[in-house]
Amino acid sequence: MNILHYLNVIIGFSLVMLLLSIVTSFAAQMWLVLFKTKGRAVGNGLASMLEDIGFEKPIAKQNVDDLLNKGSSIFGERFAGVLSKISAYFLAGAPKNIGREEFVLLLLRKASSEDELAKKLGFDDAATAKNKLDLLEQEILLEETKDSMLPAQVWRTKAMQTVVPELASKIFARFDEVLDRITEDVSMFGKFLGIIITLPILLIYWPVDSIDLLNRLSKDPVLSAKVADVAERNLPSFQKALDESKKCQENNKNNPDVRLACEQSDQALNKLAIDTMNLSEVGGLFGNEVKKDLECKLPILNIPISFDKDCKRAELTSGIFVTWILVSLGSAFWLGLLNKMLGIRSEFSKKLDAQREFRANNN
User: Fold this and answer.
1) What's the gap between Cα 256 and its chain centre?
2) Nearest one of 303, 288, 326 to 198, comparing CA atoms
3) Domain boundaries of the chain, sorted by first residue
4) Which of 68, 70, 348, 361 is placed for a possible disulfide with 94 were both Cys, Cβ 3.0 to 4.6 Å?
5) Is 197 exposed, middle or buried (CB count within 10 Å of its CB: 0-12, 13-18, 19+)?
6) Would the pLDDT of 81 be above 50?
């Protein structure tokens, strides 16, 4: 019986860490979206690619901004255009995703009206670039008629290799590597950002003290069993939601419908975590009863947080610090541990039931 209780304690503790890691990861993703992190990274990556093929840095950045700027969520047409200039400098208006064929077409269309860009791309002048663009569009249509079932990027690729092979080879040779590096860099920055913002989230909203949590679950077999049951009931939903979210992150999101579905999937996962936190069976495990009487201030700078003048936070204890470290391990880690512990618990429960049945039959 003690072994089952200790398994329940580990399961209950893992569930709390899983829920916190989901919520804090979602908050980090919201910051990435708000500040157009992926868009800026794509813009700067493409600008560096143009530098590699002979563009000066200011010209590369200017052309990428002209080609890709779709507006920004944090920069706009205000203060006599100053913010727009900042947006252009950081390439904050670039889209999060773009295909290599689309980028070549955008370059050609711009070069067809600008001699300087046309010469940078290897053409004699804008008129030559315009002629190549017309030929390319005709070739794309021809490729489409050959096999309309193929994806559009295949038609474009074949046409570009026929009409503008030198330009296409320069871009294609670098493009995928640049975007792969961007994806990796943004992912690492997202993880780093998640670690940074987790602590204030814990102190302001869910001041979970890991040491107290373990003690409470260890001393209360009824509570630990309830929380373990909650974990077992909700694990399939969490597994499905996390799998969908991961699949969305790995797949190309150029399609607006796919991107919207991915955002909705992330929001559904976050809502599932919040709803589970609010269940009566797990009440009080998320710092609900911890006193929050300290003023919210930015660390080191000691400046009050202005978004909420009445913001109060809990004191940073060693247990909350441990929670911060553990939550930073990520939802995949805690979900994997939950799966293992619930599997062991299920096998152990079966053995206990078999032993009880054996004793009952022999009495």
Assistant:
1) 16
2) 326
3) 2-34+188-361, 43-96, 99-163
4) 68
5) middle
6) no
